[in-house]
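Chain A, query sequence.
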Amino acid sequence: MNNGVWRVTPGGAVALAVDITEFAFMSSLNFGIGVGGWDANSLYIMDFSGKVYETPVGVPSKWEPHF
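Chain A, predicted structure.
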């Protein structure tokens, strides 16, 4: 289970959500918040050069408080 972002369903099944082999130097990732053009059903992956990639995954993230 390397080189990927894995999704675990409520039933316990494990599936590859995003293959990140192209992001060899990934520095961070986070779901969009659904505001300001950041889609809540997409992961945003940043590499060390600062380039951001949008990867639709079809499910929203959990709610996170923003101050």
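Strands lie at 4-8, 14-19, 26-31, 42-47, 52-56. The mean pLDDT is 79.
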